[in-house]
């Protein structure tokens, strides 16, 4: 097997840890000797062995003189487990192929340097596009300290997310809604604005997926003025934990009621124009809480503010073959006289049919990341 095929295999293995490894990275690794796999592994959860250590153990003596494929740069520091770079050196491997460098300041090139210093031939960049896309939330979190921002929306073909009377339930079909639950399962937080919480009374739980995450995603409500009462499924903390992010403008009796319902409450500065909650602080707060991927599920006002602030890393839009001919625009009510600053920052990743709808994925263009 070729280098790129073996790295593909490693990326696929890493994906198996996506719902259990966070806040650690979901790394995959393959040990190959003369082009044949002799060991493989992935990092399943914090505190458990890293992918390379598992793959080396599976390879045993066959690791000597082998090539090891790792989706992320092997670590060089003592954390909860010993450094992978040392394990690779001790195992006597001849060559290490790395897809992407680790953006964690504790590693950031030091793992690769350690291997090279020990005389190991290290090649960086094989499968970098796919591994970088797979690990994007982790790499972003370690680079910026904030959560990676995924915006999910469901809209009519003419770009509306709710009808003029505010109804938006089930614009898209059953398969698209099931697919969106898979996205929830990949996220450590699901975020909505107060408008959506009031209009839809959502539960924001993961339902109907085959492999649920090891911990339910944190449900996050952005309510700067304390408009959302502490009732309904969002405040049933038996279902999943709830965090309300607010500002000093929320009345004390409301914040008391949120606390009494069992929700966590965090007070952050107001948005730059005095409205809402400052979104950069929201992303940093989530990052501090160990959220790598934050999935924003509406509504249109919050999505527009995220776009305006250049915070959106990825968009997943489910487009239904229907026309609302008016209502709430999926990305905010504001029209623009000229091109918005974010207009040219995205590129399509994929478009495919999901049941009767279309799923379109966009990501920030490389080099444009904040
Ligand atoms: N089809 C879909 O996929 C979908 C998904 C979700 C929602 N929806 C529909 O969308 C509608 C709700 O959308 P919406 O635009 O009215 O409300 P929204 O975006 O859910 O909430 C907007 C409110 O969030 C609060 N907020 C807190 N921080 C903010 C910030 N930094 N920027 C902007 N807002 C911030 C503000 O209220 P405070 O200042 O009071 O905090 C703001 O008025 C509903 O009809 C819902 O059914 C559709």
Main attributes of the structure:
single chain; 370 residues; alpha/beta; five-stranded mixed sheet; 24% strand; elongated; binds NADP nicotinamide-adenine-dinucleotide phosphate
Structure overview:
The chain is built from 11 helices and 16 strands. With 370 residues, it is of the alpha/beta class. The strands form 3 sheets. A 9-stranded mixed beta sheet has the order 11-10-9-8-12-6-13-16-15, sandwiched between helices. The protein has a 5-stranded mixed beta sheet with strand order 2-1-3-4-5, sandwiched between helices. It has a two-stranded antiparallel ribbon with strand order 7-14. Strand 4 (95-100), helix 4 (110-117) and strand 5 form a beta-alpha-beta unit. The longest helix has 13 residues, at 3-15. The radius of gyration is 22 Å and the shape is elongated. The relative contact order is 0.12. Bound molecules: NADP nicotinamide-adenine-dinucleotide phosphate. NADP nicotinamide-adenine-dinucleotide phosphate (NAP) is lined by residues 153-154, 161-162, 166, 168, 171, 192-196, 199-200, 222-225, 227, 271, 275-277, 279, 297-302, 305, 328.
Sheet with most strands? 9 strands, mixed
Say what oligomer this is.
Answer: single chain
Mean pLDDT: 93
Ligands, ions, cofactors: NADP nicotinamide-adenine-dinucleotide phosphate
Share of residues in helices = 25-40%
């Amino acid at each position: 097997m070729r280098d790129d095929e073996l790295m593909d295999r490693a990326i696929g293995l890493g994906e198996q840890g996506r719902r259990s490894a966070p806040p650690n990275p979901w790394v995959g690794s393959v040990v190959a000797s003369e082009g044949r796999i002799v060991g493989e592994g992935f990092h399943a959860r914090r505190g458990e062995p890293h992918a390379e250590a598992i793959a080396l153990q599976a390879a045993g003596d066959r690791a000597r003189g082998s090539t090891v494929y790792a989706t992320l740069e092997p670590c060089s520091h003592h954390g909860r487990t010993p450094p992978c770079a040392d394990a690779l050196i001790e195992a006597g491997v001849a060559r290490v192929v790395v897809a992407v460098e680790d953006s964690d300041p504790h590693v950031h090139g030091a793992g690769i340097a350690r291997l090279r210093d020990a005389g190991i031939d290290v090649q960086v960049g094989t499968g970098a596009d796919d591994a970088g896309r797979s690990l994007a939330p982790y790499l972003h979190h370690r680079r910026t300290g904030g959560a990676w921002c995924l915006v999910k929306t469901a809209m009519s073909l003419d770009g509306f997310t709710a009808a003029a009377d505010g109804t938006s339930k089930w614009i898209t079909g059953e398969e698209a809604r099931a697919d969106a639950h898979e996205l929830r399962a990949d996220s450590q937080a699901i975020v909505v604005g107060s408008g959506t919480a009031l209009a839809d009374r959502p539960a924001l739980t993961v339902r109907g997926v085959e492999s649920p995450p090891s911990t339910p995603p944190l449900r996050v409500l952005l309510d700067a003025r304390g408009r959302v009462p502490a009732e309904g499924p969002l405040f049933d903390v038996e279902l999943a934990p709830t965090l309300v992010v607010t500002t000093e403008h929320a009345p004390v009796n409301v914040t008391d009621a949120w606390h009494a319902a069992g929700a966590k409450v965090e007070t952050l500065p107001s948005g730059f124009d005095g409205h809402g909650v400052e979104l950069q602080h929201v992303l940093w707060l989530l990052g501090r809480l160990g959220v790598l991927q934050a999935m924003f599920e509406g509504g249109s006002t919050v999505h527009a503010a995220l776009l305006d602030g250049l915070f959106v890393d990825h968009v997943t839009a489910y487009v239904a073959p229907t026309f609302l001919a008016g209502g709430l625009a999926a990305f905010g009510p504001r029209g623009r006289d000229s091109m918005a600053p974010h207009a040219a920052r995205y590129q399509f990743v994929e478009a495919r049919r999901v049941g009767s709808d279309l799923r379109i994925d966009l990501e920030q263009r490389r080099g444009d990341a904040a």
